[in-house]
Write a structure and sequence with these properties.
This protein has helices at about 55-60, 180-190, 200-215, 280-290, and strands spanning about 20-25, 30, 55, 80, 85, 115, 125-135, 145, 150, 155-160, 165-170, 170-175, 220-225, 235-245, 260-270. It is an alpha+beta fold. It has a domain at about 125-290: Nucleoside Triphosphate Pyrophosphohydrolase, CATH 3.90.79.10. The strands form five sheets. Strands 7, 10, 11, 12, 13, 14 and 15 form a seven-stranded mixed sheet that branches. A two-stranded antiparallel sheet has the order 1-2. The chain has a two-stranded parallel sheet with strand order 3-6. Strand 4 and strand 5 (about 85) form a beta hairpin. Helix 2 packs across helix 3 (about 200-215). The chain is globular, with a radius of gyration of 20 Å. Residues about 1-10 have low confidence and may be disordered. Bound molecules: 5-O-phosphono-beta-D-ribofuranose (RP5). 5-O-phosphono-beta-D-ribofuranose binds near residues 169 and 278.
């Protein structure tokens, strides 16, 4: 097995790895073996490490978004036709162990599970996360200040994920060959504005507002995501953008409506107590810092 650690990662992953054995994800009887902190980096020898090899049946049936079971012909660390197999973290290593040789190795280290789990691609699975913000205002329209920090309170659009039932940024996977700006608009429009079920006239109106706001985004993160679906051979990466409605009169004034993969949506106060899916709290913290808002 390759012995070099991923060095672009600020801290150990914890959502996709625990020190003791745990179920892979909610409602799944597949277990991850325990991986203690000191054994996470690939360069730390662990000759008896032999986690189960698991890829969900649906992924093995090879829907359009999934890779074939066999690695033959896949071009890792490069743009492979329309599929981007490059990592934001740099060049990742390939396994050299007998039986699993050639599989990409998670740049954040061991996770306690081999295979792809529920993820479609071997190696990086690319997503995009739109963080839409406005200032919290009282009934008179004045921006609300937290008296403890004397800072203004920021709000962002959060959704409840249908699969995990937890609050999250309304992000989604980048389709093969798709521009990230398209993904950001689509995911926000479908999950937070339910454009899939709006009448055509309303869709046009919503799209116009979203397009105007999304024309001025700021990138706040690009890299690995500590996502509970990650495995030793497949992991999530994302590009997160902030779209801020400073006056609160465009998207900030829209009625939110959950759709597609979201079963709930609301403007949510930003603070350090937020419990969000995957690494989303880290991205939200960056946005609070960007606007010098309360945290
Ligand atoms: C997370 O998974 C990303 O940050 C993004 O929010 C999300 C994309 O996956 P799906 O919502 O398409 O399942 O790692």
């Amino acid at each position: 097995m390759a012995r070099r650690a991923g060095n672009m990662l600020a801290r150990l992953h914890t959502n996709c790895r625990k020190a003791n054995p745990v179920p892979y994800i909610r409602d799944d009887d597949q277990m991850r073996c325990g991986v203690p902190d000191e054994k996470v980096p690939w360069h730390v020898p662990w000759s008896s490490y032999d986690p189960e090899d698991y890829t969900m049946k649906h992924v093995l049936s090879q829907p359009v978004w999934a890779d074939p079971v066999s690695l033959g012909g896949l071009k890792f660390n490069s743009l492979d036709g329309k599929v981007d197999r490059r990592s934001h973290t740099g060049v990742y290593e390939l396994d050299s162990d007998e039986g699993t040789a050639g599989r990409p190795l998670n740049p954040a280290g061991r996770t306690g599970l081999k295979g792809r789990g529920t993820l479609g691609k071997w190696g990086p699975n690319h997503a995009a996360d739109p963080i839409v913000t406005r200032w919290k205002r009282d009934e008179s329209g004045n921006i609300v200040i937290n008296p403890n920090s004397s800072k203004q309170i920021l709000q962002f659009v959060a959704i409840v994920r249908r699969d995990h039932g937890v609050w999250a940024i309304p992000g989604g996977m980048i389709d093969a060959g798709e521009n990230v700006n398209v993904t950001l608009r689509r995911e926000f429009s479908e999950e937070a504005m339910n454009t899939l079920e709006l009448e055509p006239g309303k869709v046009l109106e919503v799209s116009k507002q979203v397009d105007e706001l999304f024309a001025h985004g700021i990138e706040v993160y690009r890299g690995y995501v500590d996502d509970p679906r990650n495995t030793d051979n497949a992991w999530m990466e994302t590009i997160a953008y902030n779209f801020h409605d400073d006056s609160g009169v465009s998207v900030g004034a829209f009625t939110l409506n959950a759709g597609d993969d979201a079963i709930g949506v609301k403007w949510t106060d930003i603070n350090k107590d937020l419990k969000l899916f995957a690494s989303h709290s880290d991205f939200i913290k960056k946005v609070a810092e960007l606007h010098n808002a309360d945290w």
